[in-house]
TrEMBL record:
Record Pfam families: adh_short
Keywords attached to this entry: Oxidoreductase
Keyword Oxidoreductase: yes
GO molecular function, one term: oxidoreductase activity
PANTHER family for the chain: DEHYDROGENASE/REDUCTASE SDR FAMILY MEMBER 7B, DEHYDROGENASE_REDUCTASE SDR FAMILY MEMBER 7B
Lyase recorded as keyword: no
Designated name of the protein: SDR family oxidoreductase
Source domain of life: Bacteria
Length: 235
């Protein structure tokens, strides 16, 4: 089988799962990555035949299993064409300590949101160079503006920088790099103070991802900002 292979981190729910659905419909074979194997298995069962959907439990902040997974994908399926570095986490923070999670709980978010996509890029780019492939990273509208006390926003500024620095190193390799920056998406974890804000559906972001990867090899869609109609300027 020669169908192209699309690897998605954070695939078990939300934006990643919605992108998996559209990518399956577009004819890709899928590698679905998250930490919860049972949830990935359930999604894989809904998406298609076992020889086309491969659910793999892996923590994207853990280098050895992540790089080993990429080796197994190449050995088994022979190619890797699109990688969506999408896994991420969010906790509410305040540098003045006025609200939010205690600092001990900040570490996992920083690792998932910054170290995770950096390792995902490092693990997959050699395969993407071989295929003339495409790396897509999930940043955020929060990675463009100032949010008082918000460390999550700072991690997404880091993803903005990651995408630009990776793209700069990839010049001449044939690899394209797209940064997708969603506004508020209804994936179940919206804080109470934003409950009334306009929201996107995860499928709205999935369509943006498929748009970017569906362009001709000569077109590199660098950035896509998608916000719900009516979302305020600093959201
Ligand atoms: N929802 C929004 O409003 C919004 C807006 C802008 C940007 N984003 C970004 O979009 C991305 C997806 O968000 P979402 O709303 O779809 O989130 P979600 O529903 O909470 O899903 C997060 C996904 O990431 C996985 N994940 C988390 N940490 C991981 C780790 N260390 N290793 C492997 N997988 C991990 C989770 O699965 P396991 O727990 O099983 O590992 C899950 O599949 C994130 O990067 C998020 O920051 C979201």
């Amino acid at each position: 089988m020669t169908d192209p292979v699309f690897l998605i981190t954070g695939a078990s729910r939300g934006i990643g799962a919605a992108t998996a659905r559209l990518a399956a419909e577009a004819g890709y074979r899928l590698v679905l990555v998250a930490r919860d194997q049972a949830r990935l298995n359930a999604l894989a069962t809904r998406l298609g035949a076992p020889d086309r959907v491969w659910p793999v439990a892996c923590d994207v902040t853990d280098w050895a299993p992540l790089s080993g997974l990429v080796t197994r994908v190449r050995d088994t399926w022979g190619r890797l064409d699109v990688v969506f570095a999408n896994a991420g986490a969010s906790v509410v923070t305040s540098f003045l300590g006025r609200h939010g999670a205690p600092p001990e709980e900040w570490r996992d978010m920083v690792l998932a949101n910054v170290y995770g996509p950096a390792l995902t890029a490092r693990a997959t780019l050699p395969a993407l160079i071989d295929s003339g492939g495409h790396l897509v990273l999930t940043g955020s509208a929060a990675g463009r503006g100032v949010r008082p006390g918000n460390l999550y926003s700072a991690t997404k500024w880091a993803v903005t920088g990651l995408a630009q620095n990776i793209r700069a190193e990839c010049v001449g390799t044939g690899v394209r790099v797209t940064l997708v920056q969603p506004g508020l998406v209804d994936t179940g974890g919206i804080p109470a103070e934003r409950a009334q804000d306009p929201k996107l559906d995860p499928a709205d972001i999935a369509r943006a991802v498929l748009y970017a990867v569906g362009q001709p090899a000569t077109v590199d869609v660098n950035e896509i900002l998608v916000r719900p109609a009516g979302q305020g300027p600093n959201r």
